[in-house]
Amino acid sequence: MTTRESIAETLNNIALLLELKGENPFKTRAYRTGAEVVETYAGDILQKARDGDLKGIKGIGTALADKLHELASTGKLTYYENLRAEFPETIFDLFGISGLGPKKIKALHDALGVASLPDLKRACESGQAAGLPGFGARSAEKILEAIAFKEQHADQFRLGEVAASAERIRGALRAHPDVDLCEVAGSYRRGKEVLHDLDFIVSTRRPEAVMEFFVGMAEVESVVAHGATKSSVRLAGGLQCDLRAVGGEEYPFALNYFTGSKEHNVAMRSRALKWGYTLNEYRLAPAGDREPRELRRDPIRTEEDIYLALGLSPIPPELRENSGEIEAAEADDLPALVQLENLRGTFHNHTTASDGKATLVEMAAAARELGLQYLGISDHSKSSFQANGLDAERLLAQAEEIRAFNADSDSGFRLFSGVECDILKDGSLDYEDGVLAELDYVVASVHNAFTLPEAEMTARIIRAVESPYVTMLGHLTGRLLLTREPYAVDVPKVIDACAANGTIIEINANPKRLDMDWRWWKHAKGKGVKCSINPDAHRTEHFQFLHFGVKVARKGWLTRDDVVNCLPLGEVEAALRSKR
C-alpha cells in the first residue's frame, strides 16, 4: 500500500544508495529534502503527486515531481528498482547499526565488500575493519557491540513505530459490520516503550467473517495462522499481529487478560481465588471448593466491572505491571493520571536556527493550532556543532526575536526563550551564566562522551543539576531504544540531586527515547521531583510525540500536579523561575 510514509522511505533509501555510490552530495540532499517535504506537507501530497500537481512546492523540482508521480500512481519507481539492483538487499541492514553512517558503510563496502550484517561481523572480528582509515580497533569493537545489541532485540519494535499500524487496523476492524467492540490489547495498550507484537480483541457474532477480513487487509504481508476465532498475520517489517474473536459476554475478560501484564494477571487471579473464584480470559466463576464471597458487581459487562466485582477501583491499563496498583486500588488510592488534554504547553523544541525543520513562527503557529497556550524554544547549544548549535550571539538574538514575537502577539499565546545546553564532559555548561540568565529556562543534556565511568557521568550530570540556571534535564540516560543502550549513570543519585535543587526532569517523548524511563518516575514523584513532558520536536509533526510522553507519565503514576507543563500560562512562569 502506497502511503506518505512509504514514499518518504523510498526517497531516503535513494539518498542512502547515492551516498554509497559516491554521487554528488547536492543530488543526495535533493532526495532527503524531498522526503522531508512528503512527510511534512500539510495537504494531500499523494493525490497531488498522482495528479501531477506538484509544481511550486518548495523542495520538489521537475525530476523529483516525475518520480513522485510514478511512485504515487504505481507504488513503484523504476529508478529506485534499478539503483537498488546495484547493491545486495541486505545493505540496508547496515544502516541500523549505531555509529555506522553512510561514509563508513561506503568505506567498508568499497574496501572489503561488506554488504550484510554477517559480512560486517566477519570484517570486524577478523581485524580487517580496524585496519581501514577512520576505524581502528576500538571502533570495530563498538560495531560488534552494536551488532550484538541489534541481534538481541531483533524481534522488538518501538511503540512509536507500530502506533500508526495499530490505529489503522483497529479503525478498520471497528468499522467492520460484524464487529461490535474492538480494542488493541497487550503491551501496546499498557503503553510499553518496546513490544513484540500487537494483540487485537473483537466481540462479534460472526468470527469467521471477521477473520477473513483480517487476513486479507492491505497491510498484511503474510498469514501466519488463519482460524475460526484466532488468526495471526505479519506486516511489512516483520511485526506480527494477532486477532482473537470472542462473544459479547467473554469480551471484558479477554480484553483484561490479553492486556496483561502477566504479573498483573497472576496477582488478579490470586485475588479472585481468595474470594472463592477463578478468573481467566473467558469468565469469573465460583472456584467450587468453598463458598465464594459476594461479588461487588454482578453481572460483569465491562472490563471495569471485573475490578469492581473484586472490591477494587478500576485500574488503568498503563498501571498494570504489578507494581503496587492492586494494593492502591483496594485502598481506593489510585492516582488520577495525567491526560493529553491536560498539557498547556511544552519546552524542548528545535527550529531551523539549529537542526529543526520549521521556523520559530511555524512552530508557534502549529502549537497554537493544537490549542497550546505556550511553547518553549530550545535550540542546540554551540558545542553541538553537528546540529548547527547556536553561539552566544545567535542565542541572544533569538531570545530578542522571541520577546518581539510576544510583544506583537495579542492572542494570549506565549513563546518562552530557552536552549538545549550541552553538559560538557566536566559537568560545566556550554555558556557563561550571564548568557543563560537572559533566557526564560534551560534544558541541560548530555550529547557526547557517553563512555565515562558511572561515577564520573553521575557527577557530571549532578554538577549541571546544581546550576541555578538549569531548569530541567533532557533525556537523562541518553538511550536510543533498540539502537543504543543508556550510558552508565546512577539514576537514583541524579533524582536525589534534582529533588534537592528543584530541577525538573523531562520525559523526552520522542518514541526513540522515552527517557526518563517510566520505571523511575514513581520513585522521582515520591521525592517531589517535577516532570516536563517534551516532544524534542524538530518539526511541527513531532508535537504528536506528546501522546507517547503522556503514556510514559501515566505508567509512572504521574498526575497533572506532577507535570509542570500542565500549569496554565500565568503560573508556569513561576515554575520556570523557581531555581533562580
Layout of helices and strands, plus pairs?
Blueprint: H1 4-21, H2 25-40, H3 45-50, H4 62-74, H5 78-84, H6 102-112, H7 117-126, H8 137-152, E1 157-158, H9 159-175, E2 179-184, H10 186-190, E3 194-195, E4 197-204, H11 207-215, E5 220-226, E6 230-235, E7 240-246, H12 251-259, H13 262-274, E8 277-279, E9 284-286, H14 303-309, H15 325-330, E10 345-346, H16 360-369, E11 374-377, H17 392-408, E12 414-417, E13 420-422, H18 433-436, E14 443-445, H19 454-465, E15 472-473, H20 491-501, E16 504-508, H21 521-526, E17 531-534, H22 546-555, H23 572-577
Parallel strand pairs: 4-7, 10-11, 11-12, 13-14, 14-15, 15-16, 16-17
Antiparallel strand pairs: 1-3, 2-4, 5-6, 6-7, 8-9
What does this structure look like?
With 580 residues, this protein is of the alpha/beta class. The protein has 4 domains: 149 residues, DNA polymerase beta, N-terminal domain-like (DNA polymerase, domain 1); 92 residues, 2-Layer Sandwich (Beta Polymerase, domain 2), CATH 3.30.460; 78 residues, Beta Polymerase, domain 3; 238 residues, TIM Barrel, CATH 3.20.20.140. Helix content is 41%, strand content 12%. It contains 23 helices and 17 strands. The strands form 5 sheets. A 5-stranded mixed β-sheet has the order 2-4-7-6-5, with helices on both faces. The chain has a 5-stranded parallel β-sheet with strand order 13-14-15-16-17, covered by helices on one side. The protein has a 3-stranded parallel β-sheet with strand order 10-11-12. Strand 15, helix 20 and strand 16 form a beta-alpha-beta unit. Helix 7 packs antiparallel against helix 8 and helix 19 runs parallel beside helix 20. The model has no long low-confidence stretch (mean pLDDT 94).
